[in-house]
Amino acid sequence: MNMTLAEIEKRFENIPRKRLVFTPTPFHKLENMSKDYGVDIYMKREDLSGPSTFGGNKTRKLEFILGQALENKVDYLITYGAYQSNACMQMTTFCNSCDIKPILFLGDTKNQGVPTNLTGNLLLSNILGAEINYVSKPEPTDSVDLNPLWLKVIDEANKKKEELESQGYKVEFVPVGCTHEYGWVAYTLLFKELLEQSSANGFEMDYIFHTNGSGGSLPAMIAAKLMTGSKVKIISINVRSWKEGNLITKKTCLDRVKYVFDRLDIPCPSDEEIYAEMNIDENYMHPGYGIPNPDAQKSIKEVARREGMFVDPTYSGRGFHGLMDYIKKGIVPAGSKVVFIHTGGSGSFFSDPKLVKDLY
């Protein structure tokens, strides 16, 4: 399959979309670190995607989620996450721009209780005026379920949805990380931008590295790679496990890739071809999501001091550390052309002091 970029763009003409993202997002070379390591490292700046100062990888998806919500005349959007959820904050910015009321259900993953000192994304969500519901961890039970807190969060969110619908409001639920099916097509356009921007800079990409969590970005990039016949290798540095039995797995990603092809009305390749494009690396998750990793902190500090750029300790910094480790180990050969997708998350620098204590 070798579709042109213009042919892919045309497939989006009839898909509802609220254009709020500043595209194309910037694309530039990390000159100092490229010289340091003998690999040409480029940064795709999704952190500068807007519409607020705090952009990120959720914004492209939200254009389509909000576009469909506006077409459906939705009154409320409900989503959930942890107290410092970047996705919840970004959804709120889009809701405010579209005059749709945002409701957040935030799970207390660290047994903090209702916070009295608002920081980071939680502070931003409050400034933005979201309705915020704090959900405490349930009492221990004999249940074998691995996610009792999130089951409780989703249950309370669904009760709120039913309550509002009983009052005549139109309500939609947006899953964690803004991984709503309406938004899964969005990163097809990001991949298209990468091909255009690398070509304008006179090179073909050898690798794309990105941080991977709830799987809202990777499926469309895989789809776009297969549509265009690009030879670039996509490497996903996971911050959450995709092993069988978890909420998101490779099968989940497969289904989402198929959805993207179906949504764009393009014949889908075989399962084997799709699976072959999933390069999922779970070696950089230690010691857990949102818990500082000393090696990753070193990479975060290095890019700040060599390039004057910030990649956050919870998400994008982990992926960038994975890229640097691949380069240092020679897995990415000298002379390669590598693009890192900076997916935002800078609000976490101002959330928990424990996240940044090793950075200065």
UniProtKB/TrEMBL annotation:
Name the UniProt record assigns to this protein: Pyridoxal-phosphate dependent enzyme
Protein keywords: Pyridoxal phosphate
Family membership: Belongs to the ACC deaminase/D-cysteine desulfhydrase family.
SUPFAM superfamilies per record: Tryptophan synthase beta subunit-like PLP-dependent enzymes
Cofactor(s), names only, from the UniProt record: pyridoxal 5'-phosphate
InterPro entries: ACCD_DCysDesulf, TrpB-like_PALP, TrpB-like_PALP_sf
UniProt cross-references to Pfam families, sorted A to Z: PALP
Organism: Clostridium ganghwense
Higher taxonomy: Bacteria, Bacillati, Bacillota, Clostridia, Eubacteriales
UniProt-listed PANTHER family: 1-AMINOCYCLOPROPANE-1-CARBOXYLATE DEAMINASE-RELATED
Domain called Tryptophan synthase beta chain-like PALP: residue spans: 22-344
Organism superkingdom: Bacteria
